[in-house]
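Z., the sequence and structure:
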Amino acid sequence: MGRSEANKKSVSVLNALVQAIRKYRRTRRAKSDLIFCSVAEISAIARDLKLSPQELMKLVTEKNVTTAALRELLSVLGIEAKSLKLEDPAVMRELERQCLTCQRKAECAYHLAQGTAIEHYEDFCPNSYTLNDVVRTTKYTRV
């Protein structure tokens, strides 16, 4: 391996490390905001969001990953996530909540990475019925 290739690999590893540190810090910041809340306050926040306290804590720690996967799936289906969030925030929140509590995230990530999500999402995605309804409305789809 030449010196240039070694430098590129070092830069790539360094960039990945920087991204991991940034993600860790964002997660810690979000969690630390809740540290100052009492159990009753956390329960009230969760109730207001129609979540369990456990779902709220999971949301705080996993939201970035979950949101990225959901947005990618929406994009694959031709749905504009921003439009959906602006025009129908309740539907978007429900999609995010279902995605957050999904037990098949690894399967979703695999199909998104392989480019086969559009053929298989109905087999594993708890949001498939809602997504199909959104696609049928064509209100939020790209032209």
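The longest helix spans residues 3-35. The mean pLDDT is 81.

Let me know what you think.
H.
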